[in-house]
Amino acid sequence: MHYIMLIYEPSEQFDERRRPTEDTAHWGAWRAYHQSLLDAGIYQGGGPLERPDTTATTIRVRGGERQVQDGPYADTKEQLGGFILLELPTLDAALAWASRCPAAEYGAVEVRPLADLTRIFGPRHGGPVRG
Q1: Neighbouring residues of 112: CB distance < 8 A, sequence distance ≥ 6
Q2: Is the pLDDT of residue 60 over 90?
Q3: What's the pTM?
């Protein structure tokens, strides 16, 4: 089963990403976590997102008219900072890996199973995103 971990971070964490990659306080934990996902053979893809307050654009279509809003949809203390796609046998396994994610210490990690699209589009729908 495929699970996605949606990683929510406070705005100051987006600033931390700009620090040199040699900074072991921030990047060391992420490198170790990423390597453990690879070593376990469960990593399917993922990536960080750019800062939402300066790069996000939200689109809505109402009554056939496109509405464009600069910035993220919600103005909250934590913003979606990235995602990780994993292949695991159970939700409990996904929750165990999410609790090891560095962002769980300073933000939040939401875990959701991916919907099975084969019942809608058939067995050749393309499967989950690979990264």
Answers
A1: 3, 4, 6
A2: no
A3: 0.81
